[in-house]
Amino acid sequence: MMFTKAFGLLGLVSTMTAALPMTLERRDTNSTGGGVEIINNMGKDIYLWSVSNSADSTMVTLTSGGNTYSESWKTNPDGGGISIKMSTTPDQADVLQYEYTLVSPLIYWDLSCINIGNGSEFTTAGFAVTSNDSGSCPSATCKAGDTACADAYLFPTDDQATHGCPDTVQMTLNLGSSSG
Fold first, then answer.
1. Ordered alpha helix ranges (H), the chain
2. Is 164 helix (H, G, I), strand (E, B) or coil?
3. Rounded distance between C-alpha atoms, residue 178 and residue 165, angstroms
4. What's the total number of domains in the chain?
5. Domain range holding 112?
6. What integer pLDDT is reported at residue 160 of this predicted model?
7. Is residue 4 part of a domain?
8. Measured in Å, how far apart are the chain's first and last C-alpha atoms?
9. Which of 23, 27, 45 is nearest to 37 (CA)?
10. CA–CA distance, 153 with 118 (Å, rounded to integer)
11. Residue 144's closest CA among 117, 120, 125, 121?
12. Which residues fall within 8 angstroms of residue 180, CB to CB, at 6 or more apart?
């Protein structure tokens, strides 16, 4: 019982800390050493939200010019996955998602274009995910202008777009011109 209360208190402190405003964020490291880095090559600011079981998340502004956001793999307290939502506007319109679920010793990840509208700036610019372990971990590329990218979810049952990698992998998501 005390153990549960301690975790509850830790979660409350974490939630309060997450409510602080910020422009760039680096999450605490975890035991696996893996994570994702998002690089903004789009020539405009990108707004991010790292969301777990709660839709309430702090917005992070990733300024243009190759600036980065890094997040170590983390788990959802409810057992589901994490979604890093990216938008070119702070109102979460036209959202590209990098989604992952840590099930040690694996990380399952995907890109989702389900909430991208017609004429999306992400589609126009292109985006790609690579890793530091190309032998064990697949990449995903949606070239500039590809509105039917086979490497991303376009509708909820596009399960071929889910990939599994060792949880020690470091992933890189390039948004824009450096995406191949």
1. 2-18, 121-125
2. strand
3. 23
4. 1
5. 23-176
6. 83
7. no
8. 52
9. 27
10. 15
11. 125
12. 126, 128, 141, 143, 174
Task: Please say whether the beta carbons of 95 and 87 come within 8 A.
Answer: yes
Is 68 inside any structural domain?
yes
Is 170 inside a domain boundary? Answer: yes
Pairing mode of beta strands 82-87, 96-103: antiparallel
- Domain with residue 132: its CATH number is 2.60.110.10
Q: pLDDT tens digits, residue range 112-151? A: 999 998 889 999 999 999 999 999 999 999 999 999 999 9
The pTM (predicted TM-score) of the whole model is: 0.80
* b/e 96-113 (16+ beta carbons within 10 angstroms → b): bbbbbbbeeeebebbbbb
Question: E strands along 64-169, which residues?
Answer: 68-72, 82-87, 96-103, 106-112, 127-131, 140-142, 163-166
The DSSP-derived string for 23-37 is SS-BPPP-SS--EEE
Q: Cα–Cα distances in Å, from 10 out to 6, 14, 17, 23, 76?
A: 6, 6, 11, 24, 14
| Strands 35-41 and 170-176, bridge-based pairing | parallel
Q: Residue 6 falls within a domain, yes or no?
A: no
Secondary element (H or E) of residue 116: none
